[in-house]
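Quick review question:
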């Protein structure tokens, strides 16, 4: 099933850049706010719906939205990687040079895309092959903005943006708020459908790095973004939490990554140590404990035998 609304005729700051939003049973108030926030930052917007209920599809198909967008309905949940690949393909058909990805509950600042483009152009002018440039996001429920991450040797280095205008290198970027030149997407390849959700952005970022392309975080490009479920508070700090099903995908895909020969050994060691800590923490503190423990354990088993795709 496919729906379409015409693109508005305008030349915003982000001419040549299209937004791709993946939706799945979204909060329509938040989605409308996202559409409004980006409408003057990009040349057009593509919405890929991953099998939302009929009421949401009806809202998406309304023809008099104040913020027009092009709509593609997948009809069923095919996973975030498949939906993002579809969005990249549609944007390419529209003549896009760059695509900025969004989750349905992200809220970018009014100059976010311009800041990302500035960082992209500067790095490209320096002769760097740029895979993507990502925004610095803040989950209002968390204590601090998450840092951009690199693994050097056997140490995980966090770049916490001590200077507002800094641009820092990262091994990977959270997909929402991530600006990707389509030339880089062509060189690196599609996101992996079989991962379905979780580690999709990590895998793509590391694959890009293995091909000589680099990811950067733009500290001055900011947005609000809800990461997962209600965070867990422990010893005065908050930690992100997810549903048991998301923990299944997280652990399965992590173990699948460790089995890939092209992933650097030091990265596997550091990430596996962090995964072990998460296994213990969520088994003890995520509710319901038994369900989280079982889905994480099941995910590890699926990752070891390479059972991928959507969990039926």
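Suggested answer, residue by residue:
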């Amino acid at each position: 099933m496919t729906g379409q609304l015409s693109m508005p005729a305008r030349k915003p700051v982000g001419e040549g850049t299209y937004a791709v939003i993946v939706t799945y049973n979204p909060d329509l108030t938040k989605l409308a706010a996202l559409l409004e926030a980006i409408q003057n930052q990009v040349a057009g917007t593509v919405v890929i719906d991953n099998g939302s209920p009929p009421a949401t599809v009806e809202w998406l198909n309304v023809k008099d939205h104040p913020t027009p967008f092009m709509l593609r309905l997948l009809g069923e949940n095919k996973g975030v990687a498949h939906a993002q690949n579809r969005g990249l393909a549609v944007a390419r058909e529209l003549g896009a040079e760059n695509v900025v990805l969004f989750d349905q509950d992200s809220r970018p600042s009014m100059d976010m895309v311009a800041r990302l483009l500035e960082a992209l152009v500067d790095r490209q002018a320096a002769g760097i092959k740029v895979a993507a440039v990502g925004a610095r996001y803040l989950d209002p429920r968390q204590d601090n903005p998450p840092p951009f991450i690199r693994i050097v040797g056997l140490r995980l280095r966090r770049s916490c943006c001590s200077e507002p205008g800094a641009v820092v290198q990262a091994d990977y970027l959270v997909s929402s708020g991530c600006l990707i030149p389509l030339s880089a997407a062509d060189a690196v390849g599609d996101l992996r459908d079989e991962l379905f959700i979780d580690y999709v952005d990590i895998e793509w970022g590391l694959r890009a790095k293995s091909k000589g392309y680099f990811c950067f975080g733009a500290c001055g490009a900011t947005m609000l973004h809800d990461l997962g479920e209600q965070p867990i508070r422990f010893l005065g700090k908050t930690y992100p939490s997810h549903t048991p099903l998301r923990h299944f995908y997280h652990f399965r895909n992590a173990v699948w990554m460790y089995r890939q020969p092209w992933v650097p050994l030091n990265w596997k060691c550091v990430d596996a140590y962090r995964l072990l800590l998460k296994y213990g923490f969520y088994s003890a503190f995520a509710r319901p404990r038994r369900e989280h423990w079982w889905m994480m354990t099941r995910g590890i088993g699926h990752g070891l035998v390479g059972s991928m795709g959507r969990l039926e």
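Why it works: Residues 1-12 have pLDDT under 50 and may be disordered. Residues 229-305 form one domain.
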